[in-house]
Design goal:
2 helices, mainly alpha
């Protein structure tokens, strides 16, 4: 954090000793230590809050991307399932037209199929 070497600390100590004197220097050092600890805790608290906020934003971005991907895949799946249904409905309507073209027997008449005609002619 701070780039303070031993010689710089020694200079600060000597200046503090000359200004404060030997009686008040330990109390001043203790007070300075308490202030430094409070400042470090505050800085760490702010860093934790920033990291938590960044993690939350990253999580929200990830959730948004996942939701968009799911919506795209769902739309693709729906298109794929609707495409075969459209072809089936057109082929089934063709089959309905073909079945309507076959002659229908009257309710009292027997229905004769091609296979029974062939077996009847062989006997």
């Amino acid at each position: 954090m701070f780039d303070i070497g031993f010689s710089e600390l020694l200079v600060v100590f000597v200046v503090g000793l000359l200004i404060l004197g030997p009686e008040r220097l330990p109390t001043a050092a203790k007070t300075a230590g308490l202030w430094i600890r409070k400042i470090r805790r505050s800085i760490q608290s702010v860093q934790r809050e920033i990291n938590a906020q960044l993690d939350q934003e990253e999580l929200q971005r990830s959730i948004k991307e996942t939701n968009e991907r799911i919506m795209r895949e769902t739309a693709q799946f729906e298109q794929q399932t609707q495409a075969p249904n459209n072809t089936e409905s057109s082929s089934s309507s063709g089959a309905a037209n073909a079945s309507s073209e076959t002659p229908k027997a009257a309710p009292n008449e027997p229905v004769v199929t091609k296979s029974t005609d062939e077996t009847a002619s062989r006997t």
